[in-house]
Amino acid sequence: MAVYLDNNATTALDEKVLDAMLPYMGQVTGNPSSVHRFGRLQKDAIEQARELVAQLAGARAEQVVFTSGGTESNNLLLNGFKQASRETCIAVSAVEHMSLLEPAQHLQAGADIIPVDEKGCVTLPALEQAMTEHTSLLSVMSANNETGVIQDLAPLISFAAERDCFFHTDASQTAGKIALNFVDSGVHAMTISAHKLYGPVGVGALILDKQLPITKRQFGGSQEKNLRAGTENVPAIVGFGRAAGLAMENLEAGASHVRVLRNALEKGLKEFNTISIFAEGVERLPNTVQFGIAGFDGETMLMQLDRKAIAVSSGSACTSGKTEPSHVLKAMKIADVLANSAIRVSFGKNNTMSDVEKLLSALRDIIEINQHSSVMMAATV
Amino acid sequence: MAVYLDNNATTALDEKVLDAMLPYMGQVTGNPSSVHRFGRLQKDAIEQARELVAQLAGARAEQVVFTSGGTESNNLLLNGFKQASRETCIAVSAVEHMSLLEPAQHLQAGADIIPVDEKGCVTLPALEQAMTEHTSLLSVMSANNETGVIQDLAPLISFAAERDCFFHTDASQTAGKIALNFVDSGVHAMTISAHKLYGPVGVGALILDKQLPITKRQFGGSQEKNLRAGTENVPAIVGFGRAAGLAMENLEAGASHVRVLRNALEKGLKEFNTISIFAEGVERLPNTVQFGIAGFDGETMLMQLDRKAIAVSSGSACTSGKTEPSHVLKAMKIADVLANSAIRVSFGKNNTMSDVEKLLSALRDIIEINQHSSVMMAATV
């Protein structure tokens, strides 16, 4: 049985979520925009799910806009804001997900980049320096997908609020792992993705405070409060709602479960004197650890682990295939050679202590074989 | 048991399609962008589905770009083309779906509108008149969602080709109902939606000839040949593939089945001397009939039929809620009062002759009661 340790890339659909979706994937159908009973049934299902997703985010139902996923939410936020409030400057952190960084780079005037410190944290002084008097939107993620670093957003949000600057946070990795409170936090926009929290792929949300000016990007219907045209993906939205409900129920127990596994793994990793854990010592997601292995290439290690039926990531899944070091580790000023050796392990609710042991044992084998062949190579020179 | 006669709005998911999707909605997961075995499994599933969707469209697999649906495909096409080839003019027919017309209206320079004749057809003279020497993209749908009118595209495509003008067709309503041949037809882009052909909602395709210049709109990853960033909706894509396969197998039998029902309904409708069928006498989709009922309001009729557990549309589902007459019927120069009385019936594979009888009987009841009360009203005045 293969071991899946890549839950920050995507999670397995929860059986209870599938059960909630199936009634909307059967013989009874209807377009939620249709006025008849079939349409109304679908519309009601969307609104029930909206309520659950709002609760997970600590938001009000009317603040939830369903999209096709986190990438669309981030693109909609940046482009929609830029469109609605021209001549404005946007600043984003250097460690954002590519679905935020790339659209930011493609904005007409681009975006200012807020650097992070060597632990991957956005500090207040860095924010102060990156902001100009024209900055009208800041975007800093709640937690990083690679390192798991949780940003201390409160002082950043206060600072932005004093300058009448809107604040967005990509909470794709935090939703379902730690508590969110959209309304009380003072952020104006938040991105969530369902498939990161045992919900279906193909659906996400952009949570919006009505103060934030935004225009739609996808035209052709007035769905989602006229912010996202297109027939609503009802089964996925229903699944998202159910996944949000389950995430709320299991928030603490779920976090404890993965924290125990992650801590056990880190304890084991420390026995290798060639391994360094990134962003150690700062608050991180309970399920995530990213580490470098001196003298190894991350992609090669990933493939070697894959041959041993263990699935990890060598960086963000969305940038796999690139050979450059991760932009996150680069921003933390980690040397290229160490950054290129990065392996990310992200636990999920289906993992067990046996998975930790299998990974540690596999790493030991690969590293020892390699060291042995290095010695052999050295001996033959 | 309620009668669903709104299959142009959306269709019920085929059981076989659901069966194909379920293995991708269970405990085994993986992000298709991930390099490990879990990711590769998902990637392979996407490529198998791409092959099937390509076959349905008469295209090559590498020409298929998966999107979140028809609306996204149409938006991507128009905006992506405009972005890639600035300073160009676009012309679209007056009867396009709103997911094409609205983004066309929002393009920087707007779009030229090609009028239709009173039967809803785009004629060559109309096209010639609407095109300027600068027109570089034409978009004419294959068949209309409201009237069912099938456009005779061949002469329009030839005309465009002679002028080096690219041609897009929205085939959302034709795919699965009549045969498509992307490559041989000479079109450069085609939109398809899965949930119109018993596939899942939340997935569609834009079929693209590589000659057509286009840039992506959603950034943050190189998915879908770098034309659509975001984690792929694998279960939906797999379902789309299966639905495409089934549609090809059942193309003729499926068309015959709905044609028999539609013809029986039309025969019955002709017994009401107050009913006129729109676009009668021109080639239409085998499953669709739209008609006006003198002296009735379409929305009210829809609600009265709904109370009798029969679901129809009073126009395009996506524009329901608006009280203006359908833009399609307006373009056909049908008087507002008759256009406002429009009812669209669209049959699907799950319908039977009993559904036709129920609808005819319900219409008879409603019209008779109304005529009776009108008489009563007149008598009491």
Describe this structure as you would to a colleague.
The structure is a homodimer of 381-residue chains. In chain A, 42% of the residues lie in helices and 13% in strands. With 381 residues, chain A is an alpha/beta fold. In chain A, the strands form 3 sheets. In chain A, strands 2-8-7-6-5-3-4 form a 7-stranded mixed beta sheet, with helices on both faces. In chain A, strands 9-10-12 form a 3-stranded antiparallel beta sheet. In chain A, helix 4 links the parallel strand 3 (89-93) and strand 4. The longest helix of chain A is centred in the last third of the chain and has 28 residues, at 353-380. Chain A starts with a strand and ends with a helix. Chains A and B meet through helix 1, helix 2, helix 3, helix 4 and helix 9 of A and helix 1, helix 2, helix 3, helix 4 and helix 9 of B.
Notable characteristics:
381 residues; 3-stranded antiparallel β-sheet; homodimer; globular; alpha/beta
List the helices and strands and how they pair.
The structure is a homodimer of 381-residue chains.
Chain A: E1 3-4, H1 15-21, H2 37-57, E2 64-67, H3 70-84, E3 89-93, H4 98-106, E4 112-114, H5 124-130, E5 135-139, H6 153-162, E6 166-170, H7 182-185, E7 189-193, E8 204-208, H8 223-226, H9 234-249, H10 251-269, E9 275-277, E10 288-293, H11 298-307, E11 310-311, H12 327-331, H13 336-339, E12 343-346, H14 353-380
Parallel strand pairs in A: 1-11, 3-4, 3-5, 5-6, 6-7
Antiparallel strand pairs in A: 2-8, 7-8, 9-10, 10-12
